[in-house]
User: Fold these one by one.
Assistant:
Number 1:
Amino acid sequence: MSGEHSSKQYDTDLETIRSKVLLMGGLVERQFQEAINVFRNGNLDAAERVIKDDDQVNRLEIELDDACSHLIVRRQPTANDLRTVMATIKVITDLERIGDEAAKIARTAIHLHKRGAGTIDHTETVRVIAIGAADLLHDALDALARLDEKQAMKLIAQDEVIDRDFRSIMRNLITFMMEDPRTISASMDTLWVAKAVERIGDHAKNIAEYVIYIVEGKDIRHTDYATSQRDDDEV
């Protein structure tokens, strides 16, 4: 009975952590969406709110890291249970970094709109990559909530598209700056935002990879596992 009670308490503790992680995920997803809106419309009050929200994200990271550490010490999970806790800790870190990038976008938006965008349509420049990263983050959090490794696998390829879009944006902005030095300041701000969006895509991909790790026990980081799986499916 003691073992059964301990197991039930572990499940309860882990579910509490999972719920808070998903809450944190929803917060950073909204923070990112609002940061992109600020970049588009220049609402300085909204930008300050995005930056302030990062404090809440940071507090959640500390709270959840502490909860995971206590769970390991008290329950001493092994095998699959330990894998789940370790992957959850890594997801928490990626979510916190997404919050940092969203705050960075908001700060850059403040500088850009106070100075004036100049001749660059900065909003249109990052529109496609921002949509792609937002979709990737949303779907990665959905895969995490449902522990859907098949959906997680599909998301990894989406990050490759975001990376290509970022490289295209970088080339275009370099061309603008070379052709018209007056665009340098606005181009650099826009490039910083595009880079922050690209990093958010990377962190969302990481979350998808941790879903696969939790479900299948395979650490596919820095491998071509996703590509090989797609090739196998096509055979």
Note: The chain is about 90% helix and 0% strand.
Number 2:
Amino acid sequence: MPELIKQNVQWFPGHMAKTRRLIKESLNLVDGVVEILDARVPYSSQNPELDGIIKNKPRIILLNKCDVANPTATSMWIKYFESKGAYAIPVDCKTGKGLNKFDEVVKKALAKVIAKNEEKGMTGKPLRLMVVGIPNTGKSSFINRMGKNAKAKVADKAGVTRQNQWFIVGNGIELLDTPGVLWPKFDDPEVGDKLAFIGSVKDEVTDKETIACRLLESLAKTNPSAIEERYKISGVEGLQGWEILEMIGKKRGFLIKGGEIDYERAAVIVADEFRGGKLGRITLELP
């Protein structure tokens, strides 16, 4: 049995405090905000500080990674955001799925800005949008997809973009990329866990085995068949996470000297396969 860490996931590096300040300072440069959320955890991946920072700026929400999220749940989230007066579309920034609707949504969200520009004789003035989101939600992939000449650093890990960058992506739209920013602490420990599950908290600052066990316990309650079908095991309901991880380790033959289970290797596999959608299209929370 692996030694599990009880403390809650918390991570707020100094550069994130700087990012929060940069967002505030840059708001007067943009007409609206594009917020990218992870479709698997739309609630947990939404920074609660943003409402107070951007205030009444028009907002477009992109539910990214919809290809690995439950489509029914994604539809529910779209309706939820629409009921709140927001513009929301499901997308997959890596493949470009859904992004063909982006320009149309921008024009709807910024209709008043466009009308005001026309009144001032500035028809066709570029629309400037700030792209925000917590780490690893796909901001850079979105920008790179939006224009052939747009280039931003991309990596499948949290915290790659560290400074504001402007990109002209065509169709009269300019995007301001900002570093991914989390909030000072996670008041709800479940939120911290979910962000660790999807990789928005750096793996280096979490305990891999603890996170994998928590993920497995969560899935065993809500979607046990996803675990059983992927790892060819049965009877996971009601088990503790470490017991399921042990079953997976045995099934996959992850053994170390003395025939002990290599829990760390099993944990890494579970996290990677969940994030890659190999356990199926799973959404961890509903509106």
Note: The chain is about 40% helix and 10% strand.
Number 3:
Amino acid sequence: MFADRAKIIIRSGKGGDGHVSFRRELYVPNGGPDGGDGGRGGDVIFEVDEGQNTLGDYRHKRKFKAEDGEEGGKRRCHGGDGRDIVLKVPEGTVIMEAESRKVIADMSGDNKRQVVLKGGRGGKGNQHYATATMQVPKYAQPGQPAQELEVLLELKVIADVGLVGFPNVGKSTFLSRVTNAQPKIANYHFTTLSPNLGVVDTENGGFVIADIPGLIEGASEGVGLGHEFLRHIERTRVLVHIVDAASTEGRDPVDDIYKINKELEAYNPEIAARPQLIAANKIDCIFEDGEENPVDRLRAEFEPKGIKVYPVSAATGQGIRELLFGIRQLLDESPAERIVFEQEFFPEDVLITENLPYTVTKAEDDPHVFVVEGPKIEKMLGYTNLDSEKGFAFFQRFLKDGGILDELENAGIEEGDTVRMYGFDFDYYK
């Protein structure tokens, strides 16, 4: 069974807790703190596997977890880091947050490996908290918690050209003739159930072509397997309509093209606007009977709209060469860059919206120092590199979006006052 969609739960590793311990040696009655740091939790990494072409590995297992970091030990021993978990996916897989369907990563093009969830940082041992006034710290920092996320994996095939058409119009036969692909071919009145890919080599350059399973009316609304099929043409640069010009099953080829373009428009107008060609198939079954030639009818209807019509027979090979050169020419005239979906969802930013408590108070010894504490603050600081410009911008956005700046102003903070957060001091300016 071809699997091009899966919903799984991924979880990074928790950071190991820092350790609380003190030196206990002969002749050293009051040894200092020597608690070690906890290990880093493992990351969740997605990696492209060129040998895979489906998401079948994720059909029967739903939860994937990286390893937790180990707790720090005595004598300043650092806890071991948790092992990362690497999830292999076929090229073209798009990783989305399951509920919002926003893109986290598109595993195509140059993006062969991406960390989607970072493991928690290990907590600091009590050796880091000794000061002149606190020489026996009995506190160690806990490791940062793991991140967990439900993600939707969707495979959107990577092809230059997409073959579209209703069932049983000859798409699979055409693909088998022009490429080395070996789709199952029979007189199916339903449809091929999975997309087939093949590489076409012509004298003026090759390209990848995909036989998109036959569409039906209402596909854009999810009727039948509509959404399952339509997603596979999202990356294609050129669309080729395959129609039964001979109407061997009573279908009107002109009406078929309008119906399919209507489904494409409803699903994604940008796809419907891409360059198109028409392959008027089964011309070997057209007999002169005094009626208007269906190929002439197709040309009269669509060539004034800029859509060229090529009469072909996938069964005999007639007209195939001309069609392939026409496709190659249209590709050369189209933008060459691959269609890659931009990231819309950033798992680390979810921390901003977490409803964790915090407090804003004035320092007892200085009315111009405001202390902000709470698990929300500590967690954010643990995930943020304040030494980088991007990290500091993230920190400022956190203060604003989390309502912390409003709380500080309500507490009476003024320009030049100090904001203190878990060992960090910041000057406040509007």
Note: The chain is about 20% helix and 20% strand.
Number 4:
Amino acid sequence: MFKTKIMALITLGAFVISMLAIPVSAQADLTAIGKLSVVEKAIYGVPQTGALLDRTVKLEQDVYGQETHDAILPRVDKIYSYLFETTEQNPAIVTKLNAVEWTFSHAVSHSPIKARVEELEKTLNGTPVSGSLSGRIDKLLHIAYSGGQFEVASTAIPADTLVKIKTLSTLNNKQSRPGDAVALAVAEDVYVGGVLVLPKGAKGFGKVTKVQQPKSFGRDAKLEISFDSLVAIDGTTINTFLGDKAKEETKSLAKAAGASVAGMVILGPVGIIGGAFVNGKEANIPIGSQLYVQTKDEIEVFGIKTK
């Protein structure tokens, strides 16, 4: 009975965490199992299975290159902090990898950490190399930066900061359902005082909030989307929304591209959208559609000095 309860707890924890974005300080209240699942999803793409100790040992070997011998809970906390918790003196693995990838391609990608490291190694060396993820990322840092060092700065992103984004999900009234996740990405780098805080390619999250099918008497379909959050270069989740400032900037973007503007609704030939909804006989938002969102509140992140 006890074993059954433990397995149920592990399964539930893995399921809940698998639905979350890669976090940092906002997830400080996670259980050990929760933190382990988040780390595994970040590195491998999915939470792993098996005993807590075995999973911890595998992560240590993959991340550090060796097993440690403390109690399990401190070991899990250490791996979690090592991956996600940046300071000005010690950038986290996520921040280091984002810095390297942005330096080489001026964008970051959404793949798991292990796959991103391998892809960078193949691009630079022709083939992936062996060793711990920590050591391999440090080698990449030495290629990207003199002495393998880059400067991290604590930076406040003001409320209502505009961010250009693009959609990565196919959205239409025939297939989309309320509650469906909407994948987003930052379309242009965002700097605050010369510090890069949101790199191009950084992922974002939204959801479908309403779907209305075409009705009789010429009433059009309707598709409503919320644009909820973006992930900063240090992994911090930034809450966003489609406010008046963002709508006006999107209208300007559409006009410059030659798209028509009709109130809050913009659906141009280059796939630019604006407003909280799209109306039309068939509501369709193609992948790559661009618009602006704005940050909800001022938030402190660790950015990278590039200028």
Note: The first helix runs from residue 2 to 18.
